[in-house]
Design brief:
about 65% helix; mainly alpha; abc type-2 transporter like fold; four-stranded mixed sheet; single chain
Length: about 400
């Protein structure tokens, strides 16, 4: 009972100190609540429609005008200007009156008549990838549609309409996008970002807490308190504060945010909560270890904020895992978010169960165990430093019964 009482006392003191510090509350409470809402709200409209587009038609033939009409008829593109040259079109893009340019060369119809390959130039304002995606997709679809008709009426001499249809599409296919049916940015980005927010805010919150403790305790991260005599109790007591808080925040992120913004959600809640447990533990213990490098409250911001984007790339979500160099793959294994992010996306977006993500699940438990032992060793070293410091003070302080156990 005495051990449990010490853990509860450490948990309570850490909880009170945390909620008294506005800086820590911003990172562990305000950011995990507001960032998912903010990101989801920004990317709610997953598709861009009627992208303003300028057309430079140097051919001015029946075929080129047909191409422009079909392009304007798609839901993705709206032709807002017919320009005489590229310079005029570039000016429209410069002043953001158009976000893309379609250039039809002067040899467009002549190349087709002679059986040569022709081309249509597409230039996009790359300040937003969704503009590029919408215009390029619309241009490709129009080109494919015109190719089918040109093939039938110029090269295929069929006797019936049925033969024309077969010549256009000898093989029928059906395009079915899996897991991200709209091919939208929010469905792709928000799920991994939620996991990244959890890890990063824990690193910042616990790091700031350790920096405050060093400033308060003369360079040490534990106070001169009789309950802080055992490293395991300290790690469990402090970790319990963040685990309970972030378990509730995880439910908020993965249930409310996902449903409120109608993001894909195919996974089972019980599977998700089972998976999130080792992820939170590994993140908490990992944050305790990295906080050893924090000596001032502000240090954690400089140490941890910049790694968010690199972690998203080397995790294999935003960049193909097969193209990530082996060195960076091994670096990514250090961070819990690598396994947590991939496991969560497969549970939430693909409906995977624990058997399907057994590799990520085991790796997270392995990380949690390793980081727990390292965190205990770190606090044990801090206890030794505190005991050594106590022995150097005035003899009257020897009545303070602080012995390492």
């Amino acid at each position: 009972m005495r051990h449990i009482r010490d853990i509860i006392i450490i948990w309570y003191e850490e909880l009170i100190d945390t909620f008294k510090d506005k800086g820590i509350l911003i990172f562990i409470l305000f950011v995990p609540i507001m960032y998912p809402l903010l990101y989801s709200y920004i990317y709610t409209n997953e598709l861009v429609r009627e992208v303003p587009t300028a057309v430079v038609d140097d051919n001015c033939s029946h075929l080129s005008r047909q191409f422009v009409r079909k392009l304007d008829g798609t839901s993705d593109v709206k032709v807002v200007a017919h320009c005489t040259d590229m310079h005029e079109a570039e000016e429209l893009v410069k002043w953001q009156k158009a976000y893309a340019i379609i250039h039809i060369p002067s040899t467009f119809d002549r190349d087709i008549e002679h059986g040569k390959e022709t081309y249509v130039g597409e230039y996009s304002d790359m300040c937003a990838m969704l503009y590029y995606k919408s215009v390029l997709l619309a241009a490709n679809l129009v080109a494919l549609d015109m190719n089918e008709n040109i093939k039938v009426y110029k090269y295929e001499k069929n006797m019936t309409n049925r033969q024309d249809i077969i010549s256009k599409k000898p093989i029928k296919y059906q395009y079915v996008p899996l897991y991200n049916t709209q091919s939208g940015f929010a469905s792709f980005l928000i799920p991994p970002v939620l996991m990244l927010i959890i890890q990063q805010t824990l690193l910042l919150g616990i790091g700031m807490s350790m920096g405050r403790a060093r400033e308060k305790n003369g360079g040490l991260i534990i106070p001169m308190n009789r309950h802080y005599k055992n490293a395991v109790k300290i790690v469990l007591g402090k970790g319990l504060v963040y685990f309970l808080l972030y378990f509730a925040l995880s439910i908020f992120m993965f249930v409310y945010v996902t449903k409120a913004f109608q993001l894909p959600q195919l996974g089972n809640y019980l599977t998700l909560l089972t998976f999130i447990t080792p992820f939170l533990l590994s993140c908490i213990f990992f944050a305790m270890i990295t906080s050893a490098f924090v000596y001032r409250r502000e240090d954690c911001i400089m140490l941890f904020v910049f790694i968010s984007v690199p972690l998203l790339f080397i995790s294999g979500i935003s960049w193909p895992w097969s193209d990530v160099p082996d060195f960076w793959k091994h670096v990514s294994y250090i961070f819990p978010v690598t396994f947590g992010l991939n496991g969560y996306v497969r549970i939430n977006n693909m409906g995977a169960n624990l058997y399907d993500i057994a590799y990520e699940y085991r790796c997270l438990w392995l990380q949690a165990g390793i980081y727990f032992l390292i965190a205990c060793a770190m606090y044990r070293a801090q206890i030794k430093k505190l005991v050594h410091r106590i022995k150097k003070v005035d003899p009257r302080f020897q009545i303070f019964h602080f012995r390492e156990r």
